[in-house]
């Protein structure tokens, strides 16, 4: 006489029987028993991907919560193999999200750098344009060397960043910074001496 699988101890049941019992009853404890058999596998796989014990532990918990909706959508033949694929996909998706976050962060840092480049420049050309003699400033800008003049005009009057100027003038960033610094120094001398 064969016993009904529902009457055997959970530990003795095959994965397929535990999964079948869970799907029939919706009992989370049964799913927990099945998942517990492979928690070490899940943790190890997550640790391999994340290289962080804390992230791997979090993923083990997140994955258990994911199983409930996933099992209602998929017909699972081999729980261990299916769980391995689900775990791997989860890790890859989380890593992708993290990379997108890093890319966004890098984009923000570049924008901030451009802002700081413009905000940090302190020079008579930056301050109170109404108080300056615009004619004197124009005359002084005209006296600058061609590259200095181009860089100063793009930086201050067209609000271009160092990188944008590099691209527009086909120059290295060091050269652009040098032309702006030298141009500013020459403008300051010119404005102060009122030549």
**What does the largest sheet look like?**
none
- Give the total of beta strands: 0
Give the number of helices. Answer: 9
Overall spatial form: rod-shaped
Task: Give me the CATH superfamily of the largest domain.
Answer: RNA polymerase sigma factor, region 2, helix turn helix motif
The CATH architecture of the largest domain can be given as Orthogonal Bundle
The gyration radius over C-alpha positions equals 33 Å
Strand content: under 5%
Rounded mean pLDDT is 79
Count of all domains? 2
N-to-C terminal Cα separation, in Å?
A: 113 Å
In helices, the fraction of residues equals over 70%
CATH fold assignment of the largest domain:
Rna Polymerase Sigma Factor, Chain: A
- Succession of helices and strands: HHHHHHHHH
- Give unreliable regions as ranges: 1-8, 115-122
What does this structure look like?
The chain has 195 residues and is an all-alpha fold. It folds into 2 domains: 5-114, RNA polymerase sigma factor, region 2, helix turn helix motif (Rna Polymerase Sigma Factor, Chain: A), CATH 1.10.1740.10; 121-193, Arc Repressor Mutant, subunit A (Orthogonal Bundle), CATH 1.10.10.10. It is 74% helix and 0% strand. It contains 9 helices and no strands. α3 packs across α4 and α6 (134-143) packs across α9. It starts with 14 loop residues before the first helix and ends with a helix.
What layout of secondary structure does this protein have?
Elements: H1 15-25, H2 28-36, H3 39-50, H4 53-73, H5 79-119, H6 134-143, H7 146-157, H8 162-169, H9 173-193
Helix pairs in contact: 1-2, 3-4, 3-5, 6-9, 7-9
């Amino acid at each position: 006489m064969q016993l009904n699988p529902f009457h055997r101890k959970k530990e003795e049941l095959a994965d397929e029987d535990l999964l079948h019992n869970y799907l029939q009853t919706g009992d989370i404890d049964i799913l927990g028993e099945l998942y517990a058999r492979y928690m070490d596998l899940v943790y190890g796989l997550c640790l391999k991907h994340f290289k962080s014990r804390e992230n791997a532990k979090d993923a083990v918990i997140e994955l258990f919560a994911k199983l409930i909706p996933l099992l209602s959508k998929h017909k699972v033949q081999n729980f261990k193999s299916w769980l391995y694929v689900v775990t791997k996909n989860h890790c890859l998706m989380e890593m992708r999200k993290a990379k997108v976050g890093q890319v966004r962060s890098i984009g923000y840092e570049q924008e901030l750098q451009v802002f700081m480049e413009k905000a940090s420049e302190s020079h008579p050309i930056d301050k109170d344009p109404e108080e300056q003699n615009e004619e004197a400033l124009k005359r002084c800008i005209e006296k600058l060397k061609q590259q200095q003049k181009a860089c100063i005009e793009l930086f201050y009057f067209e609000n271009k960043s160092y990188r944008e100027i590099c691209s527009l003038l086909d120059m290295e960033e060091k050269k652009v910074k040098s032309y702006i610094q030298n141009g500013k120094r020459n403008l300051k001398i010119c404005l102060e001496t009122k030549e």
